[in-house]
Design brief:
Radius of gyration: 31 Å
Number of strands: 2
Distance between the termini: 99 Å
CATH class of the largest domain: Mainly Alpha
Shape: elongated
Strand order of the largest sheet: 1-2
Strand content: under 5%
Mean pLDDT: 87
Order of helices and strands: HHHEEHH
Length: 180
């Protein structure tokens, strides 16, 4: 065999070996990619199950509304403003979900409530205008109940709370708060 022929055979062999190694590397990388995709899919499915629904958000709003009531009742304006901010954040979360319940655009109702009653309650709190606050609070409850009625959940009526929603919170303003 000539040297030239031997060189061609070696080059051919190197090409075949390189092709084979490249295919093996490609196969290994593809297996890893598929495994990573499967793991990502499992994580995504778990995360989707954790996603809050409209009911979770409504329970949050109801709790914040009750806490807002007692914060105002005890003239704890800092806490009342905080609870109002929490309500606004929940309304923003609802906007992300874009729920439509029995033809009612709940996110739209919530956005309207945020820009009217919640904004008016905030102004009343900042001015220490109790009468305006209580009027806006009542209008907010009316908006909630009308939305419930219109969307087929009229049996779920929200009222002014009679008892604090939690028993382990001091409602008095910080300067008056009892010492442990």
């Amino acid at each position: 065999m000539t040297a030239r022929r031997t060189g061609f055979l070696l080059i051919g062999l190197l090409i075949v070996v390189s092709f084979f190694l490249g295919m093996m590397l490609c196969f290994a990388m593809n297996r890893k990619k598929n495994k990573d995709m499967e793991q990502l899919s499992v994580r995504l499915n778990k995360t989707e199950r954790l996603e809050p629904d409209i009911g979770d958000s409504m329970r949050d709003l109801q709790m914040d509304m009750a806490k807002l009531w007692f914060a105002q009742k005890y003239h704890n304006h800092a806490l009342a403003l905080y609870e109002l901010k929490e309500m606004e954040e929940t309304v923003e979360d609802i906007d992300i979900l874009k729920p439509v319940v029995n033809g009612v655009n709940v996110a739209g109702v919530m956005d309207g409530m945020k820009n009217s009653q919640l904004a008016d309650m905030k102004r009343a709190l900042l001015k220490h205008d109790d009468a305006s606050f209580y009027r806006q609070y009542g209008q907010t409850l009316a908006t909630c109940n009308e939305c419930h009625r219109t969307s087929g959940f009229g049996f779920n009526r929200i009222t002014i709370p009679q008892n604090p929603p939690v028993s382990n919170q001091d409602w008095a303003p910080e300067k008056e708060a009892s010492k442990p």
